[in-house]
């Protein structure tokens, strides 16, 4: 868990303790508050010491139990503040991939311009259903999550309607390695590469490919999405981060623009895609 995340959770715990000690009808002990909430008393101390992340329902129950229901809005804001930074896959995928895809859909629908960089996988907005299905299956196996693959695929495909709406613009960058990664059967990847080639020339999409072997100005690290230069979404093996402070967003925009300088677009991008297509093993 990151230091910033833990510090924010501890700070929320301190605020919860303050509310307990200043309850409307007098100071409450941990066991007294636990009884009012119907919780084991150990939960009170875990929350106050930053050892457990509360749910929005927990926070509302706490505010009501201490006689300060007006504090619920503040507590929810604090929770959103640090959960918008780091969202663990364990918690996010507890109910499967579909809820995560639906939340992405809300964020994407609010955006007019998206910049994306992917070094190892085709961006979700440009995936075929078959390719997306194998991506979800691979991650479900890794994380041991609820297998709701078909629902997740449908949600991701619906999100691609964004590409056909006037005034939208997707600036996508991929490393050539992503075009060769066999995370799916060869025929599926072949279809995915055909789909990519077909996006070249769409008026809502600028697709750039960074060929293997070209000079790079920075290492091609993990993928990320920048929405309207106001929100960055990036992920690692343990979590997904939603970052919206100006300095951080500006940093990711700089990274994207630096990577863009090594990319080819248009007909040159189609040449790279075609090369990857022809290099697929014959089955």
What are the defining features of this structure?
eight-stranded mixed β-sheet, 283 residues, 434 Repressor (Amino-terminal Domain), elongated, alpha+beta
Explain what this protein looks like in three dimensions:
There is one protein chain. The chain folds into two domains: 3-83, Orthogonal Bundle (434 Repressor (Amino-terminal Domain)), CATH 1.10.260.40; 88-278, Endonuclease, Chain A, CATH 3.30.870. Helix content is 52%, strand content 13%. It contains 13 helices and eight strands. It has helices at 3-21, 30-37, 41-48, 56-65, 72-83, 89-92, 98-109, 129-143, 149-159, 176-180, 186-199, 246-260, 266-278; strands at residues 86-88, 113-118, 169-175, 205-210, 224-227, 231-235, 239-243, 264-265. The protein has an eight-stranded mixed β-sheet with strand order 1-7-6-5-2-3-4-8, with helices on both faces. Helix 4 (56-65) runs antiparallel to helix 5 (72-83) and helix 7 (98-109) packs parallel to helix 9.
């Amino acid at each position: 868990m990151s230091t910033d995340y833990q510090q924010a959770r501890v700070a929320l715990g301190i605020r919860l303790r303050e509310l307990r000690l200043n309850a409307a009808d007098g100071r409450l002990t941990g066991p007294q508050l636990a009884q009012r909430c119907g919780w084991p008393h150990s939960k009170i101390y875990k929350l106050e010491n930053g050892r457990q992340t509360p749910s929005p329902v927990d926070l509302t129950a706490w505010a009501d139990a201490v006689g300060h229901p007006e504090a619920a809005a503040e507590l929810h804001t604090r929770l959103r503040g640090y959960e918008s930074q780091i969202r663990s896959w364990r918690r996010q995928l507890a109910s499967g991939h579909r809820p995560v895809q639906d939340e992405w859909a809300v964020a994407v629908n609010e955006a007019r311009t998206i910049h994306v960089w992917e070094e190892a996988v085709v961006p979700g907005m440009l995936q075929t259903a078959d390719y997306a299905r194998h991506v979800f299956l691979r991650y479900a196996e890794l994380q041991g999550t609820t297998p709701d693959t078909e629902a997740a695929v449908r949600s991701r495909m619906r999100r691609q309607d964004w590409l056909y709406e006037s005034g939208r613009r997707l600036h996508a960058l991929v490393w050539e390695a992503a075009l060769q990664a066999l995370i799916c059967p060869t025929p599926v990847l072949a279809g995915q590469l055909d789909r990519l080639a077909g996006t070249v020339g769409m008026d809502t999409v600028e697709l750039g490919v960074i060929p293997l072997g070209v000079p790079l100005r920075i290492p091609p690290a993990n993928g990320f999405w920048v929405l309207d230069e106001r929100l960055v979404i990036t992920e690692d093996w343990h979590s997904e981060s939603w970052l919206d402070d100006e300095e951080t967003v500006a940093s990711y925009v700089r990274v994207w623009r630096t990577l863009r300088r090594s990319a080819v677009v248009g007909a040159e991008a189609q040449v790279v895609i075609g090369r990857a297509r022809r290099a697929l093993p014959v089955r």
